[in-house]
Amino acid sequence: MTGDSAAERKMQFLFALRSKGVTDARVLGAMEKIDRGVFIKGHFAPRAYEDMPLPIACGQTISQPSVVAIMTQALDVQPRDKVLEIGTGSGYQAAILSRLARRVYTVERHRRLAAEAQARFEALALTNVTAIAADGSFGLPEQAPFDRILVTAAAEDPPGPLLAQLRVGGIMIVPVGQSDTVQRLIKVTRTETGLDYDELREVRFVPLVEGLGND
Ligand code: SAH
């Protein structure tokens, strides 16, 4: 029998991340501090510590913890960084980023999700992260450029406005491909002379959709 005390659950949660190849101590520390249970309400709340994506409001999903950890590790966030996330969803990924970066902006096309995420940041006293309701395909020009950009919805190509808002030396992680198939996680690095592309692994995300949602 596996135990179900909070401490044992946390140990199992972190063990699952390590076994999926998450080695960065800062990332593991942030994942330990931010309680995923706060980001999942209702029916699926008891499964918050399992390594699987789960449904949230507005027909969206909170990503699988090991995928959150692997994307965060690939982003290589530095303590002075200003980070942009596209696809706030529950706010879980943004909360993790807020423990690693100086400042985080996260953009969500569903106003309801952005508002609920913002309320969670405030309840957790995470004061360096802001959720904004907007179409994130255009980035956040008023706060650009960014040191790091993380897209948590799949685009057919990395959106041009996001590439344009990446500082020289900056890194963007983005799932690329059709929404109904397996997508590839791409790491884009802006150099002095252009953009470098690395393919990391296969992933599955909900699609990046244009325009604001109805709710
Ligand atoms: N990072 C989230 C999970 C992302 S699910 C978490 O930690 O819970 C992907 C999210 O991207 C969904 O909430 C979806 O509504 C949002 N999304 C899709 N297209 C978007 C767009 N153009 N701009 C902003 N958000 C978008």
Automatic annotation (TrEMBL):
UniProt main location, coarse: cytoplasm
Any single biological process term in GO: methylation
Keywords annotated in UniProt: Cytoplasm, Methyltransferase, S-adenosyl-L-methionine, Transferase
EC number: 2.1.1.77
Pfam families: PCMT
GO-annotated molecular function: protein-L-isoaspartate (D-aspartate) O-methyltransferase activity
UniProt subcellular location: Cytoplasm
Reaction(s) catalysed (UniProt annotation): [protein]-L-isoaspartate + S-adenosyl-L-methionine = [protein]-L-isoaspartate alpha-methyl ester + S-adenosyl-L-homocysteine
Stored InterPro entries: PCMT, SAM-dependent_MTases_sf
GO CC, one annotated term: cytoplasm
Superkingdom classification of source: Bacteria
Active site: S63
Annotated family: Belongs to the methyltransferase superfamily. L-isoaspartyl/D-aspartyl protein methyltransferase family.
NCBIfam families: pimt, PRK00312.1
PANTHER family named among the record's database cross-references: PROTEIN-L-ISOASPARTATE O-METHYLTRANSFERASE, PROTEIN-L-ISOASPARTATE(D-ASPARTATE) O-METHYLTRANSFERASE
Summary of the function given for this chain in its UniProt record: Catalyzes the methyl esterification of L-isoaspartyl residues in peptides and proteins that result from spontaneous decomposition of normal L-aspartyl and L-asparaginyl residues. It plays a role in the repair and/or degradation of damaged proteins.
UniProt name for this protein: Protein-L-isoaspartate O-methyltransferase
Species of origin: Rhodovulum euryhalinum
Species lineage: Bacteria, Pseudomonadati, Pseudomonadota, Alphaproteobacteria, Rhodobacterales
